Amino acid sequence: MGCAGCSSSTTNGIPKGCNSNGSCLTGGCNRLNTYDWFAQMDVYDPTGFHLVEVSFKNGARKDFFHNNESMGVHSGDFVVVDVGSGFDIGQVTLSGELVRMQMKKKGVREDQVLFTIVRKAHGRDLEKLDQSRKLEKSALVRARAIARTLDLEMKVGDVEYRGDTRKATFYYTAEGRIDFRELVREYAKEFRVKIEMRQIGARQESARIGGLGSCGRELCCSTWLTDFKSVTTNAARYQNISINQSKLSGQCGRLKCCLNYELDTYMDALKDFPKNVDVLYAESGVAHKVKIDIFKKIIYYSIKTAVGRGFIVAVDVDRVKEIKKMNDEGKKPDEFVIKTDDPIDPNGEGELEYADVTGQIELPYEKRKKSRRRKPRNRNQKQGNRNQKSQGNQKSQGNQKSQSKQGGAKQSSDQKTESGQKRRPSNRRNRPKNSRRNQPNQQKPNQGNKDQGKKDESK
User: Fold this and answer.
1) Pairing state of beta strands 194-199 and 167-173?
2) How does pLDDT run across 196-230, given as a tens digit for each residue?
3) Which residues contact 171 (CB under 8 A, 6 or more apart)?
4) Domain residues of the chain, as ranges?
5) Taking a C-beta distance cutoff of 8 angstroms, is the pair 172, 144 a contact?
6) 304, 360 in Cβ contact below 8 A?
């Protein structure tokens, strides 16, 4: 089983991991490993296979290479391989006759293998490999930022540097085809290496990144699952699983691959269940199917009686077949369950006995303290009080206006009301427009007061 810390915790290019001291079942810290039984035995195989399997980046990518027997390369050794345009560093994960079986499984022919192993990796090669792995995290962050500035609908999921740090492969996911010609030019200016873009699916992305599933174990796609079969919601329906998209989806956003693991077992068990038995008829009432228990071979029905109040009964599959056959012939049985009258127990084991503890166990009475919390005020009541206050103010203002009209007293424009706001004189509201123009000889009250004051002074 691949460890999640292998890619981040390394010493001289060699992943620390658990070194098979924990729960690794494959004999190493690489992903998607096949246990090599012959490699653990000091037995010489004269008919050994001349090809070996080499993994890169802790099993994220694997390939086959020609092996020279004079080098003495075995499983677990780090080697330098020729990849055509440069050199890369990987770990031998499989050798011998098992390589032939692995190639047959993946559909790779011997004439398709072109590259060879150059030599075993020494300390300097492992240090260079460790440096290339450290560059991947910063390159991933920068690559995502550049893709976002160019407004490309894609997600860069992983970056892999070659062992000689002269080439970088960017793995991305997208809904459709992406024109990344401008993106490649920006990447070449930024990273100063040869750029390769590879589009992968959502499940391949989760397999490369890894993680823990809802079961608590590492993802199947990153440990042992190699072929991804299509998963539909019918697999959940056959297993009586509620269709909840959030619970049925994995970290890749697709339906979980483990829904197909037990599907064949459920399909075989469902062959014993009769079809078209959603509704059954009997003298006691009509039964509607509620659910089924596949492994107990029981179908639960809801019975509606003449009173109208129904209850749930568990009917055996054989009994359901008998009732279905009688209904097809136009007959109705007296009861749905023959063995027992208990609607819950179909096997007739009898009712459960319960001890009567009335009066034997009494709990002490505790007085509850009254809470001193203030009762929350009603907002509608507050709003009503405000409306009442505003109406009262309007009435008081109306009374003051009427009193001022009767007394003939005029209020000045600078006088303020009780609320503190200025109010216009009442005579201005009823005054028609252009009244001053129609009465040119009329003097203003302020001017009349001034003239009277001058006369008094002259006297």
Assistant:
1) parallel
2) 999 998 898 988 888 888 888 888 888 888 888 88
3) 156, 157, 158, 159, 160, 198, 199, 200, 204, 205, 208
4) 10-121, 274-349
5) no
6) no
